[in-house]
Each structure stands twice: as structure tokens, then as C-alpha cells.
């Protein structure tokens, strides 16, 4: 049973006035067999959180549990985790067979026949059986990454911990490996924590995603949940590509008044009761071009994507993006009108950034 419990985890580096709080009171649980993606901008504490789970960093405070076992004070090799890093660092002088089997030779009492069997099974699973005799320098980046994964899989650990394992691959291969890795993880059913700064990767791969910023956990949820019901403006802005359109609006009774003459009368004004000012958000795909009754925006660039067009717009001093049907093709320089459904409008507290709708 490898449910993971991260309990009020805190990690500081350095001491006194030089101390850096890398991870601040982070709490979450990963279910047995689940694929959880830790995502956030550079420096937000993802890697440190992962290294604490691995036992590569001592925690400053908080506890870590695997199943019912408190592993907080256990060393890395006592935790039954296998890690895959961005720099997969294969042993250059060893062939693929030895690279995959090396950890097993060191850490288990398996016979060499048994090790061979497990290495071959793993290689078959990863589609690299015919490379077992090759040295790393004879392999492509994608093949090397598969070998690194093989090294983790062959150990049959309770937990996989992966830190940006695909970031050295080109875009096409990365997209392909995402799917493969996700399928493999579901097949193996090994609880996995996967770190990335790439929200597209997080959305595509995670059963759930945990969004971090500035050492703190912002939200944990299924990808669509985090996308559609972000807990705050940071999450709304970080998740989604192109990103959500955000602007400040004054609250005038039941009407929101924003930049460039934006005005919108709420059907349900209860959300903004007591607010003078709020932050409003509309996702690019929720912006509709209309011929009348909408708000004015100026078109700066039209980018045809084949099945749809991306429109780059300005509303007063705010840049916006809209994703519209490919039949909608205004000219750069034109002023057009947009509308949206109130259901698709996000509202945030202008001071705290917390979601109010
Ligand atoms: P990235 O995506 O850039 O790797 P990250 O989200 O994984 O970023 P961490 O590497 O966990 O972030 O770093 C979190 C914070 O802790 C940063 O401010 C970083 O400078 C600091 N930090 C990390 N490791 C150490 C260390 N060994 N000593 C001092 N500070 C550290």
C-alpha cells in the first residue's frame, strides 16, 4: 500500500536571516497507484518537495508517510522509491542491459538469471529489447530516457518520483513519451509523483495536479477541476494556454466597469456585494465575437491555427486573446465586439486574489 501523506511539510535552507523557505506548510495526499503532477513556476519548491519525499533532503518540520509507515526519518534507500531525473546520467561505459540492471545487482540478492529476466521484461515493456547490447552514446535522447525509466521500473518500487524527466527531449518526442509514460504508469499501478514547470504537461498527464507557488501549495485537484474552478488568480493564470484574460473592474451596483469602456451587468450580482473593485477573468475560448451588444476590443494580430483562429486583442491598456472558429477572421486594426456567458466569468478578490466566483 503506497498511499503517500505529506503533512505540513516545511523545508528551509540556511539559517537565521539567510534562511530560504523553499517549502512552506505543504499538505497533500497521493492515493495508492495515483499519478500526481506537482507543477508551478521555477523556484516554487517542486523539486525540494520531491526530494523530501525521496529522502534526499531532511525536512525542517512536518511528516511524510508511505501507507501507515512514517518515513520522515528514513534514509532514501530505506524508502523503496525509484527516481528519474531530467539528467538521466547513464553509465557511459556500460551497455543498456547493465545500466538497467545495475541497481538490482547492488541492492538485491537476486541471482543474475533473475536479474536478466527482469531487465528483459522491462526492456520489452519500453520497446528497447533490441538495444540491450548498446552503449548510451549509441542511443538517441528518447532511447536514453527510456533506459533511465527502465532503471526505475526494473526495481519494482512502491513509489516513482520523477523530476522533469522529459524536458531534454524535443517537442514531438516529449508529447509521445508523455502518453507512453502515463500508459505505463497506469499499467504498473505504481504511485507516482511527477514534477514539471509545464502546465500543459501537467494537464495532459496527471490524474490530479498540485499547483505550487512561492513554496506554498495553491490547489490540488483533477486537471479539469483546477482549470474550471481555480482557487485563486495565480492558479487561473498559470493553468491554461493561451492564458486567461484578466483585468481589474470597478463594481458599480450590479455592473462591472473595466478598461477600454468595458461594461457588463451581472445577472447574479450577489458575488460582488461589498466589493468596490474586483479582478475579472475570461478564458480565450469563452470569448465570442458578436455583431452587437458586446464590448469593444481592437484586433492586433490574427493567427490562423487551422481549425480555429487565435485573435490577439487590446481592450484599453489590457492585452487579451480569443480562440474563435476559423470562419471568424477579422482584420488586424479592426474594432470588434465580444460577449461571454456569465457562467464562464471568473471573479477574484482584487487584494487577496482568492476566487469569489
Ligand atoms: P525549478 O523548476 O527551477 O527546478 P523548483 O520549483 O523545483 O524550481 P526548488 O528547486 O525546489 O524549486 O527551489 C525552491 C527554492 O529553494 C528556490 O528559491 C531555491 O533557490 C531554493 N533552494 C533549493 N535548493 C537549495 C539549496 N540546496 N540551498 C539553498 N537554497 C535552495
TrEMBL record:
<dbReference type="GO" id="GO:0008643">
    <property type="term" value="P:carbohydrate transport"/>
</dbReference>
<keyword id="KW-0762">Sugar transport</keyword>
<dbReference type="GO" id="GO:0016887">
    <property type="term" value="F:ATP hydrolysis activity"/>
</dbReference>
<dbReference type="Pfam" id="PF08402">
    <property type="entry name" value="TOBE_2"/>
</dbReference>
<dbReference type="GO" id="GO:0005524">
    <property type="term" value="F:ATP binding"/>
</dbReference>
<dbReference type="InterPro" id="IPR012340">
    <property type="entry name" value="NA-bd_OB-fold"/>
</dbReference>
<dbReference type="InterPro" id="IPR013611">
    <property type="entry name" value="Transp-assoc_OB_typ2"/>
</dbReference>
<dbReference type="GO" id="GO:0055052">
    <property type="term" value="C:ATP-binding cassette (ABC) transporter complex, substrate-binding subunit-containing"/>
</dbReference>
<keyword id="KW-0813">Transport</keyword>
<comment type="similarity">
    <text>Belongs to the ABC transporter superfamily. Carbohydrate uptake transporter-1 (CUT1) (TC 3.A.1.1) family.</text>
</comment>
<protein>
    <recommendedName>
        <fullName>ABC-type D-xylose/L-arabinose transporter</fullName>
        <ecNumber>7.5.2.13</ecNumber>
    </recommendedName>
</protein>
<dbReference type="InterPro" id="IPR003439">
    <property type="entry name" value="ABC_transporter-like_ATP-bd"/>
</dbReference>
<dbReference type="GO" id="GO:0140359">
    <property type="term" value="F:ABC-type transporter activity"/>
</dbReference>
<dbReference type="InterPro" id="IPR003593">
    <property type="entry name" value="AAA+_ATPase"/>
</dbReference>
<keyword id="KW-1003">Cell membrane</keyword>
<keyword id="KW-0547">Nucleotide-binding</keyword>
<dbReference type="Pfam" id="PF00005">
    <property type="entry name" value="ABC_tran"/>
</dbReference>
<keyword id="KW-1278">Translocase</keyword>
<dbReference type="InterPro" id="IPR047641">
    <property type="entry name" value="ABC_transpr_MalK/UgpC-like"/>
</dbReference>
<feature type="domain" description="ABC transporter">
    <location>
        <begin position="4"/>
        <end position="239"/>
    </location>
</feature>
<dbReference type="InterPro" id="IPR008995">
    <property type="entry name" value="Mo/tungstate-bd_C_term_dom"/>
</dbReference>
<keyword id="KW-0472">Membrane</keyword>
<comment type="function">
    <text>Part of the ABC transporter complex XacGHIJK involved in the uptake of xylose and arabinose. Responsible for energy coupling to the transport system.</text>
</comment>
<dbReference type="InterPro" id="IPR015855">
    <property type="entry name" value="ABC_transpr_MalK-like"/>
</dbReference>
<keyword id="KW-0067">ATP-binding</keyword>
<comment type="subunit">
    <text>The complex is composed of two ATP-binding proteins (XacJ and XacK), two transmembrane proteins (XacH and XacI) and a solute-binding protein (XacG).</text>
</comment>
<dbReference type="InterPro" id="IPR017871">
    <property type="entry name" value="ABC_transporter-like_CS"/>
</dbReference>
<dbReference type="InterPro" id="IPR027417">
    <property type="entry name" value="P-loop_NTPase"/>
</dbReference>
